[in-house]
Each structure stands twice: as C-alpha cells, then as structure tokens.
Uracil phosphoribosyltransferase
Amino acid sequence: MSGKVIVIDHPLLQHKLGYLRDKETGSGEFRELVKEISRILAHEVMRDWNEMRDVVVETPIAQTKVQRIANAPVVVSIMRAGNGMLDAVLSMIPFASAGFIGIYRDKFIHNTVEYYFKMPEDIKGKMAIMCDPLVSTADTMIAAIDRLKSYEVKKIRILTILCSEFAIEKIRHFHPDVDIFTLNIEKEINDLGYLVPGLGDAGDRLYQTK
C-alpha cells in the first residue's frame, strides 16, 4: 500500500506556525504552540480510524450502544524534540501507549547512532504514530522506521510540523507505505541540514539548549 502525504492547511495552524518560525518567540510560548499544533495533528491522524468496538452504556435517560476505539495505536517520540509533541498527542489519544527512540546522525562516522529504544510489549500489530517536529534529511527518521518495522507494527504514520521535499522523497524510496502528516513542505535544506526557512533547531528552542 502506497503511503500518503497529508498537508494540513488550516488558518489557525498557519497562524501558530508563523509564531514558531519567529526567532523572537520564547521557549515557553514555543512549547505551548508545539503542543497546540500536535493536538490538531493527532486529531487528523485518527480521522480515518476504522477499528472500533461496540459497547453498551447507560445514559442518564436510557441504555444505548456506543463505539470505542479498538487496537489503540502506539505514540512514538523521536527524542528529544519529539517529547515536545508526545504529551499533547497522548492528551488526544489517552488510551494509547507510548514508546521512545533516541537516535541521531553522527557527523564523524556519517551514520545514525541509536542510544535509546523502549517500546510497549504489545506493539506488534498496532499502528505506530511517530512524533518529530521537524524532518529534514530523514536519516534518523528512516533508521527509526527500520527499527519499528522489525517489531512488526501494523502501520506507521509520521506526525511532523515541517518536512522537506528531500525527506519525503527519501522516505518514499525506503518506506513507500509510510504516511506523513505535516503543516508545510519546505523546499530547501541548508549546508548544516536545517530546513529553510524552517524554525531553527526544535529541540534547542523547546528546552533552551544550544
């Protein structure tokens, strides 16, 4: 099955993205904006969910049948910037479990290095929703997808605020079945691997590191 690229174009999201791009936006406001955007992304990623179960409940008036989500997804943070999205996504999908992947591209060995990996025991057969605010070169994202697929997840979807054209093509090449949900597709990457115009280093701006 071919993966989709969904660009969520909404005036409220574009308004919030404008403040994320602004270098004058402080860390506290930046964190809140990332959370607000992540909640909306979580809503969109679940829009076509079709695994439901029927449950009988009592309303204050009468007995009725309602639907609840079955086979809940696993929300995966690509650390550390993905942590800025994780709680917000889980607030929208509170019945989901969570996983963590710590991975980075080492400029000396020219390869990705995994330093942390922790997943729920029952991840097999579940959808994995991968959270990372920015996907630039896609090297770490592809390595993370490789790891998740080794655990036989059912489907993988990426939630990101900004994604480069280059990253989309690279992900499509290595993992054509993965869906990508984003606010905007950036056309350029500079020599340091940053998206242009982008919003800088999301992790540094979230946590006031350098």
Remarks:
- The domain at 5-207 is CATH 3.40.50.2020 (Rossmann fold).
- The chain has six helices and 14 strands.
